[in-house]
Amino acid sequence: MRNVGIIMRRELGSYFATPLAYVFLLVFLVFANWFTFYLGGLYERGQADLNPFFTWHPWLYLLLCSAIAMRLWAEERKSGTIELLMTQPITLWQAVVGKFLAAWAFASLALALTFPLWITVNYLGDPDNGAILAAYIGSAVLAGGYLAVGSLMSALTRNQVVAFILSVAACFILMVAGYPLVIDAFHAWLPSSVVDAIASLSFLTHYEAIAKGVLDFSDLLFFAMLIGYFMLATAVVLDVRKSE
Rounded distance, CA 166 to CA 149, Å? Predict the structure, then answer.
């Protein structure tokens, strides 16, 4: 765990070594507030909750988390610093976990900086803070899912732009897998059991349940298993392509 912590601190520090991290944070906070107050109509709804805030998170994270993850391995491979990293007394798995945790911590920081919204709804009324806390947890694990997918996409290429596009595409597919329109399309030519399996992979299906204030173990387990799977896939891809 000590090596994982070292990698995590190194990676997290690199985010703030350039203005890029502050730009990401600013963009996230601006759009989060815009979605909440303007598109979500927080004041017009007449309810003291953060449902408009959390409703837009899957779409906001689709771009933000892909942008964070695109540099995880693509930049290392392009610059050649991945060879230097692998000469350190650490395992490939430790490097994958450390870099992922750094990205997840950065995304969680962006989420934590939205606390003025929580203060606002508590000032305006008497919200269910337990449900809001559950929704924050759901948003954090959703970001982790996106970042795990993005980490794999970043490991597949040396180009950050390509990694970003691949990540957005893969996360979008996983996000809309449970949409009624998608399910209806699959029902026309696939057995119900297969369609149900596809629907169960939807980020939205599991996230929306948590965002409503219900911390179901099965939903948390889904994200934990998904993160674990994509991190393992990232390690396998890096091991296979380490000589390239």
Answer: 9
